[in-house]
Amino acid sequence: MQPRRLGAELFTMAKKKASISMRRNLWFIVFFSVLLFVLALLRINSHGSSSEILLSNPETPFVGIPKIAFLFLARAHLPLDFLWHCFFQNGEVGRFSIYVHSEPGFVFSKATSRSPFFHGRQINNSIQVAWGESSMIEAERLLLSAALEDPANQRFVLLSDSCVPLYNFSYTYEYLLSSSKSFVDSFLDTKESRYTPKMFPTIPQEKWRKGSQWITLVRKHASVVVADDAIFPLFRKYCKRRPALDIKKMKNMKPVVQKEHNCIPDEHYVQTLLSISDLDDELERRTLTFTAWNVSSAKMDRQNWHPVTFEYANASPQHIKAIKGTNNVYYETEYRNEWCKSNGTLVPCFLFARKFSQGAAMRLLSEGLVGPFDAATMLTALL
């Protein structure tokens, strides 16, 4: 082979190798650039809200028998513990857990509770709670946080110390576990002007919601509430209850005082938080707890509406049957008629009701609404 021809072939081979090397380097540059871009996006997202972070990292699916966490908000003791004792006694151990938020330092024991189901079930980091203040939703978050420590807790039911169950444990358990959604009363607040622009842009007005405080959450949504560190501080700062007005003195009040902003935190917080988290589609937008409101007051006295207390006389079987027969709820501000469903099946709207006196609760027991009732057995257990 001639030297000139050999040199040309060597030059061609070197050129091909250089071309291959350049292509490899180009692919490496492209790959590295894409990797940097993805890492940058992940870093940006990591600075989002705590709920967004939690939703992008779901928990490992629970394997085992799921439990319902019953979360009681109490002033001190539980006056209806004897009724709930019968409810839990007719349930299955391992399918429920109990948590109570009471006043700081209050301990549930034989001396303070007639039911051993509640002994020692108080959370130890409770706070002093005042109605209409952010301390109410802070107490709810403390209950949810304590209940989330048990991975078996898959449903979280918030109850007051005057709530009663309308069905036995088995029906309640099947009802809640058959649905993959949370039950959160949530609707547009278009009449009472409780939203303030001071919450913008973290809380846009179109995401502002109102509803009943008494919620039932799936674990995912309970975690969102506990992880929130963006919405709750704004509620604590801007959502405050206006003191009740004395109608007789209103004529002498200054207009500035009359127009003072009024906001009830526990009627808006969870609803608004889940709306901002784009979770509306994962909710049954209704509460499971029936409340009868005193709505006979004049419009000027509307802020003084309060729940009706059921006494022995108006806790009749006919009245309870009417509550249990409710199958839809109408939401005036949205012109929405919410048919009560669980997993797509029509069901009674309410599993619980409030506010019940001790006499009314005893009547429910005598009617056998929460399960088989034997007075002698119950009294022995409570002694």
UniProtKB/TrEMBL annotation:
Localization per record: Membrane
Originating organism: Dioscorea cayennensis subsp. rotundata (White Guinea yam)
Membrane-crossing segments per the record: none
GO cellular component, one term: membrane
Entry GO MF terms: glycosyltransferase activity
Pfam families, per database record: Branch (PF02485)
PANTHER family (UniProt xref): CORE-2/I-BRANCHING BETA-1,6-N-ACETYLGLUCOSAMINYLTRANSFERASE FAMILY PROTEIN-RELATED, OS01G0695200 PROTEIN
Protein name: Glycosyltransferase BC10-like
